[in-house]
Write a structure and sequence with these properties.
With 220 residues, the chain is α/β, with parallel strands linked by helices. It is 35% helix and 23% strand. Bound molecules: adenosine-5'-triphosphate and magnesium ion (MG). Magnesium ion is lined by residues 42-43, 166.
Length: 220
């Protein structure tokens, strides 16, 4: 679902590369934790994989057809991101002026799923993340854990091959964090996707299939 070869990134003006010559892969149904000290480059790596930031060199092959994010023009990159990738942001990024259902519909609109299919897809995902009936509600009326589950539903609704999650349980109490993580892991495995989850939590990392540690010298 993801294959990274020789990936390097240096921010403009920085003295040394944040990372260079990274190499790893994520298989079907595999959930990989990405850990490492603050500032080491985990979010930058996720953004590069999603094509939100441009890496300087390397290959980023995504999905069953293994399209290389770095060899595509901007339009094709956006299309690859919209159809193949689901992103869970650290701060949820659930839009306050859209209902829960409208928030979850965004990736369906971007990836061109027929509108007639939207309600059923949204309802079934809301059910799976334990939020049945929440569709018409406004985000402001949801708890932090509920918002994070909306963000997870939104990352999964278009059935992406790859899910990238940046501290998806960072703002949650341990019990809610566990629930959110369980939903995420189940969905990734059911949908035969792959996932890369950035986390500072040892517990979250240990629930994943494999742990990658990003250090200034590379991946361990
Ligand atoms: N656009 C940018 N230009 C210059 N430097 C940047 C830019 N974006 C990030 N950085 C720097 O790159 C380093 C890595 O940042 P990044 O956000 O990837 O770290 P992180 O591992 O996700 O940290 P945390 O665990 O705190 O979220 C930091 O020192 C940051 O200041
Ligand atoms: Mg980060």
């Amino acid at each position: 679902m993801l294959s990274i070869v020789g990936l390097s990134k240096r921010h403009p003006g920085a003295l040394r590369p944040l990372f260079s010559e990274l190499r790893f892969a994520i298989g079907t149904g595999e959930v990989v934790a990405l850990v490492g000290e603050s500032g080491v480059g985990k979010s930058t790596l996720l953004n590069c994989i999603a094509g939100l930031e441009l890496a300087d060199a390397g290959e980023i092959r995504v999905g069953p057809d293994a399209l290389d994010m770095l060899r595509l023009d901007e339009t094709a990159r956006a299309a690859l991101r919209a159809t193949r990738i689901g992103f869970v942001f650290q701060a949820f990024h659930v839009l306050p002026t859209l209902t829960v259902a409208q928030n979850i519909a965004i990736p369906l609109l971007l990836s061109g799923v027929t509108p007639a299919e939207h309600p059923a897809r949204i309802e079934s995902l809301l059910l799976r993340v334990g939020l049945a009936g929440f569709g018409p509600r406004w985000p402001a009326t949801l708890s932090g854990g509920e918002l994070q589950r909306v963000a997870i539903a939104r990352a999964l609704v278009h059935r992406p091959a790859l899910i990238l999650a940046d501290e998806p349980t960072g703002n949650l109490d341990p019990r809610t964090a566990d629930e959110v993580l369980t939903v995420l892991l189940e969905r990734v495995r059911d949908q035969h996707a792959g996932a890369l989850i950035v986390t500072h939590s040892q517990h979250v990392a240990q629930c994943c299939d494999r742990i990658l540690t990003l250090t200034p010298d590379g991946l361990e």
